[in-house]
Queue: 3 jobs
Job 1
Amino acid sequence: MNEKECNRNESNKVNPNVLHDDSTRLAFMSMKMIIPTKVPFRHGLVLSLLCTGFATIVAITTYYLNGIANIPIHFGTILQDFKTNPVHVSVNTLLQGSGALNMTTTLKPSLKDVYAQQCDFNDAACAAGYAIVSTHAWYFVGKAFALISDLNKPDFQDANNPMQFNYISNLNGENTPIAQFYIPGHSIAITCMIRRASFYLTQQAASTAMTDSLAFCSPRTYDPNWVCENDVVADTKTYVVQMNKGIPSFVGLAKHDQFYLNAGYVAELSGGLAGSVFIQSVPVIDEYQSGVVQASAPWDILAVANCANFNRLTGTGWLLQMQGVETMTWKCDSLMLTNSIVLW
């Protein structure tokens, strides 16, 4: 071999210290790479760690959710006033009527019959059938005025005076029956609103309380254009009447501000035929999401109504103003604490 060929062979040898191009560099690295026989972290271990992390997050979340489930959360006092947030009575079947106390009757209705009356949507025939019951029920309320010794309106207790009344009810949805009693030619009338309340004698235990539909009646200036209004000043005496099966009874009286804008308050009635009485509103429970979330509130015993813009054709414009102390509760029967422990 001559010197020229030897030089050519020497030039073809790979110098490990000098890598001339990428392909040569990769080939050299592959020869030098040491592949371990065991990989310390495989996919199974990584997935296990991820699952443990997610399970821990879910378990902690479930633990804290268990802490708020079935526990009432107080939202405080809510005022639904005429200007910003009134209660709209959705009138789908309207009942309006009138009567006089010189009528005769053989019916023996109760106030709960008037309060609980319900008809189908825009069912005029059903409303006409209930008109007889409503008229006679309000007739007995007017008769109860004679039982109130502190009424200070003797004209309304005189059977010889031709006392008359108008009334209004909503027979499809929320019902708040109201009536105005008046004597033609007199400037003073008496308006009554039927509301459900719980009451018991002051000398007895609260466990003896009964719930019934009662008429809350207050003297008010006669309104010839009356539709549903019953607003009076705060210190006006309000008389509470109970009537079952045609037998009226005077429960007692208190000032109007004991019943209105005083949510959750237990008022005391005096002057009743059976003695002093404690009275309070019946809490209302609204359910959402099929009962999962419940909103409960003791609203005012008595609301104030306004029908200045009431439209008989559309059934809109009957407004209520009242106050309530609302509480929200998330109802859950699942064993969340146990499930969180098992899950983790």
Job 2
Amino acid sequence: MVKFEVIRKEPGEVIRSEDWNKIQEDIKADLERLEEENRNLKRYIENMGEGVTLINLDSPVGKSYNLDENVPGETGNYGTRVMGYITKQWVVGKAEKGIICRFGILDFFNVLNYWSGAEAGDKKTLEITLEYMDGTTHTVRDLFIHEWTKLRAKGTDSPYVEYLLSPNERVWYKYALINPNPDKKVMYIAFTDTNEECAPRIANAIQHVTRIRPIQTYQE
């Protein structure tokens, strides 16, 4: 609410210096308040984000399994065909390593949320590569993935954002990855198992979040 109060004078009436000073001080106070409100609004807008969830993702490489299907070399499964948006799991397999899957994205984003969990987990076992449209890449290595057969505490090494429990209490953990180049369009995301001692799985559903870009002001 504007604090400035109008002081009316008759034509030809002299304005006292104290009245003039008060007018200037009130105007200055209102301008400072408006500037602070604009700064707060700008910070609020810059922190807003638009989330996009991609489901039923397919990959030209790797192998997927149903959630109620036993992965070779593992004992047990999720005991259900659907968990939220997740309907498939991509896994290289125990005692093996290599590319788990590679999903097409074709979008800009600031944060990637993906679901994972590992057989014989609680180890650094995952590598993620963002492949940009301009031909460059960004790779994050040695990502810690929690054990999927029993819920683990978040810990401090690659803490998960949230988790999903199946009816038999097998776990999907949701992790977040920061994209250091949000102004570049991501073409593909590749997930790689780098540790033969465990078998991380990747869900066929991911989410990416894009911060709302501030409106640019152009001058003629």
Job 3
Amino acid sequence: MAERPRRRGVLPIALGAAVLVAGVGGGLWYVKPWQGVDVPQSACWNAFTHDDLATLSGKGHKTLAWQDEKALTDREYPHDPACNVTWKGDSSLSHAVANIATRIRDEKFQRAKTKAEATGWEPNLPVSLDFGPGAQGWLFHEGTVQLLIRCDYLEKDGRPSNWPYHEIAITGDRWSSDTPVTEVHRIRIAAALRTAKAIVRTQGCTNAPQLAEQPPTAPF
């Protein structure tokens, strides 16, 4: 059997019989094949819990997580850590049940983004999500969740960064048919907030952005 191709710069968190699983605190732990773990305890910098992954994948299905080697603590441009969670259903095909993409953005992007989402693409305006006073958030009708947070910090030469914003996008193209769409959106919204909190914690934002204690309710 041919070896499965791997993305450059991507760390396998869980794959096949012998797996590496994201553990508490962002570390990794090794699961022996005979333990029969089909769903990791967490994935993507702990943005997705075991229950989240089990709900998305459905009973009896395996969940595979691929986390980019770039850490949330990295500040070098381009700063775009990513994580993908795939689900192998009843067929031989694998589907992306969840994907987290993070990117650093500048002031110009933030202004354009705010204006664009306020007017939207009629008639499907995104729904604003309240992630707290330190962030902006949206839920789009196809299910994408986006969060934009400002995290000020100083460059190595002491200058304020020209890229103070972090954009977080949570997507996915398929999940268990037993899981209602509203529950999928709830999981993505919670994952976006956890990722934002991880960025604030690891980046040491000098502006101390305030985030909500609990994720907002999925409106649909």
